[in-house]
Write a structure and sequence with these properties.
about 100 residues, mainly alpha, Helix Hairpins, 3 helices
Length: about 100
């Protein structure tokens, strides 16, 4: 088994574990973390596919695609965490006991 095949197997396992956790949990923060784990698996698979056995250097297009994906993942994760914070704050205000006037 070559390194690329091992990395592909690990990438598929990361994707499966992340996707399963994302579907099975109700906590929003854990869903974001699970989505990031699944994304890391996809990135690992793409980086493994970038190595061609006959070529002396890996494919730079897939490397650029993975780097762009990492940047997008970081920004989307920050945005998702900000949305989760706002959702939890709104639910806390909605579920807080209200004092009656008078």
């Amino acid at each position: 088994m070559s390194r690329a095949e091992l990395f592909i197997i690990v990438g598929v396992a990361l994707f499966v574990f992340g996707a399963a956790r994302m579907l099975l949990t109700a906590d929003l923060i854990r869903r974001v973390v699970a989505l990031n784990v699944a994304g890391a698996g996809v990135f690992l698979i793409l980086m493994s596919l970038a190595t061609v056995r006959d070529a002396s250097e890996p494919d730079p297009v897939l490397h650029a695609l993975v780097l762009t994906g990492i940047v997008i993942t970081v920004s989307i994760t920050g945005f998702a965490l900000a949305l989760i914070r706002r959702i939890e704050r709104t639910e806390a205000v909605r579920n807080s006991p209200r004092e009656s006037d008078g």
